[in-house]
Specification:
Layout: E1 5-8, E2 14-17, H1 21-25, H2 31-43, H3 48-61, H4 65-68, H5 70-92, H6 97-117, H7 121-150, H8 155-168, H9 171-177, H10 183-211, H11 226-231, H12 233-238, H13 248-254, H14 256-279, H15 287-311, H16 313-337, H17 340-369, H18 374-383, H19 385-399, H20 404-423
Antiparallel strand pairs: 1-2
Length: 437
């Protein structure tokens, strides 16, 4: 083991160099990527899996469709609210990552078992929405923090790939949930599917809890020279640096942070809405569209970060939002014409754009405001997902009323258009203002 030393680059960022993953955890750091990835894939069933299963749940349990959406809204609020303090407590050392994951494993499993067996909506709200939301927040915050800390040279790309599993890991459940066509068939299918999902969540999150560890603060991989990396043009293009380190209060005063929050609310609402809207769309078997949407939602997160390394994150975010808006307009067209082919075609841009903005916004937080206070600043942005959940569920409820899916898709397109317009105004804060000559 080499002697550890704290290195500082010309921007004032600290790097702890010397210890290798083998020294710290006695195994390659790839373990600290794939275990969180698997855990994220298993808990995605609580958000996207439940959303895709809304029609089957309502049919099997005799619940009104609109009321079946209420637990999903509560779950999203709880998950977003818990993810922020989890990351903050992990960074301060007040919460161990093993404790967070060990707590998240049974809570996540209990939530999925509640969906499998509960017949009363209040029980679903308590067991699935409240307990499951807390469990998912613990796991989500722990997994993203672990991956970002173990891959500090490219956190955006790695975290984007990990969070992508949150979506495409749910695709098999969405397919099965969309197959039954009668209440008995729905019940006979949903119960074993959610039981299996609970067992998988308990096993994968429990496995992550047994092995995942966090590196020391400021840890840096020994095979990369931090000072050379800080000046490398390729690295600077992949991971642009902030002009200076902003505190949360300073970030709020720039105007860029409120803009990022607004973008996430609008785009996040549409992303959630699309899953429910496609699952409840009449006239054809929706499972193929929902599964395709979820796979592309997850894949889009990883691809968007890689594309952003070439085009820049601001441009990539605008392009992603344009794709999502196009998807809503094509979905509206499909709803008006009743064309199953158009719905499937529209699912491609809607899916690619429906998840990619999450890692792009997270990486813009780092690019705009620096690494020192990333946890608290991004936590504020990610907490906006709670508002997005309420808006998304509201749009889904609208789609189930007499207004129909087409009107809801047009409203969704308007929301994304507003987000795209806001993204065009984003600028990296901290640069001196040049006076006209």
């Amino acid at each position: 083991m080499e002697k550890t030393q704290l290195v500082r680059d010309w921007r004032g960022r600290d790097y702890l160099v010397g210890d290798t993953p083998q020294d710290l955890i006695n195994r390659p750091r790839s373990w600290m990527f794939w275990l969180p990835w698997a855990a994220m894939a298993s808990i995605g069933a609580m958000q996207y899996g439940y959303a895709a299963a809304v029609p089957a749940l309502a049919q099997a349990r005799g619940w009104p469709l609109a009321q079946t959406l209420a637990p999903l809204a509560v779950w999203i609020i709880c998950q977003a609210a818990v993810a922020l303090p989890t990351v903050l407590l992990l960074r301060r050392g007040a919460l161990g990552i093993r404790v967070a994951l060990w707590a998240g494993a049974p809570l996540s499993a209990a939530a999925l078992l509640t969906v499998a067996f509960a017949r009363d909506l209040p029980v679903v709200v308590a067991g699935y929405a409240l307990l499951g939301g807390v469990g998912a927040g613990l796991v989500y915050g722990s997994c993203t923090e672990a991956v970002a800390r173990w891959y500090p040279e490219r956190p955006a790309a790695r975290v984007g790939f990990t969070t992508g599993a949150f979506a495409y890991g749910t695709a098999p459940l969405a397919v099965v949930a969309g197959l039954p066509g009668d209440p008995v068939g729905a019940e006979n299918t949903l119960q074993p599917v959610f039981i299996v999902a609970a067992a998988v969540a308990l096993a994968t999150v429990g496995l992550a809890a047994a092995f995942v560890r966090l590196p020391p603060p400021h840890w840096w991989p020994a095979h990369i020279d931090p000072r050379a990396w800080a000046d490398d043009r390729v690295a600077l293009r992949r991971e642009p640096r902030a002009v200076r380190q902003f505190s949360l209060g300073q970030a709020l005063r720039t105007g860029s942070l409120p803009t990022l929050v607004s973008i996430l609310v609008c785009a996040g609402a549409v992303s959630i809405f699309d899953v429910v809207a496609l699952a409840t769309f009449g006239g054809f078997s929706p499972w193929a569209a929902v599964a395709l949407l979820l796979v592309l939602n997850g894949a889009g997160r990883a691809c968007a970060v890689l594309a952003a390394e070439v085009t820049g994150r601001g441009r990539a975010l605008s392009a992603v939002l344009a794709l999502l808006c196009l998807g809503q307009l094509l979905l509206a067209w499909g709803a008006v014409t009743g064309s199953a082919v158009m719905i499937l075609v529209a699912t491609v841009p809607a899916g690619l754009g429906g998840g990619a903005f999450y890692p792009l916004i997270a990486s813009l937080v780092r690019e705009y405001f620096g690494e020192r206070h990333t946890a608290s600043i991004h936590g504020v942005v990610y907490s906006a997902k709670a508002v997005a959940g309420l808006v998304g569920v509201g749009l889904a409820a609208l789609a189930l009323t007499s207004s129909g899916h087409a009107a809801a898709f047009f409203l969704a397109a308007g929301l994304v258009l507003a987000a795209a317009s806001l993204s065009a105004t984003l600028r990296q804060p901290g640069h001196p203002v040049t006076l006209p000559g």
